[in-house]
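Write out the 3D structure for:
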Amino acid sequence: MFKGREFMKLLTKNMQQDMAIQMCNKARDIDICIFNALDGSMPKDYLLDCLTLYETEDGGFGHGLYIDNYNTNSSVYQVYEALRMLDMLDFDSSCDLDLYDHIVNKAFNFIYNRAELKDGKWNPNVKSNDNFAHAKIFSYDEENKELFGYHPTAAIIGYTLTLCKPTKAYYKKALRMLDDCLNYLYKANSLTKYEAISFGSLLNSLKKANIKSEEWKKIEDKLIANAKDNVSLSFEDNETLHPLEAALFLDDPDLNNLKDQELDYLISSIKSFGLWDKIGDWGWDKYPEADSASLKWIGAQTVINYYLLKKCGRIE
């Protein structure tokens, strides 16, 4: 998508070397693992071992896998986070490792057989969130359910189709849910910030799995139109939809120009210690754990940004 275009800024080899050192000093083990897999210095299979540390008895994921939610119990959003990490390192159903099968089967058993599903959407939050320190958006209430909308449902449907073999019951369930999910997208006048991210992920998964190819352009056109209406270049504002969030998997000249500007900004905004901070906070001052979360985010945000730069050809 990005081949042949001129870029103003690159993440240099020296910057990457400094980043790798600082990741070892400041990041969680799972973020170090992903970073090292992305830069080629560690086999990606180690991610599977890291994920087992966050598994719960019911097969889902908790224990603060998503940094802004300290709930030790499973929730749809924390399972989504695990699936997102697997997808980031290009795991798919061709993986023949026993540990991969264990993690994926347990995770989707939780999603499809245990998680709260209403009107074709999983609630990303669970009641037990309120018993633990968490960002405001992870409180179990109707306001947050509305805020997330079809996120992370759309993304999870896509991950099911790439991570599961077609013979699996979860794969077939995802296919049954897909039509309603796309109908929602086509009829929506606008998407929430989170929905735009989720449907972009779904489009990417459909392309990876070579499913619904006749729908790809229609999906992309809808997402491009939404992005042009809602994308902002106010990079310090965590409440706006940024080009990389809205349009990472889309190809449009205007959006590509905005993506280039955001990529330049990412590289110029690396902190003096060689990593990135996360923009934004928990939305309230109810929990002192927010301070420790901000330290954990240094490594996690660096992994996300490094992945985006690599995906967009900005790594030297």
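The beta strands are 117-118, 121-122.
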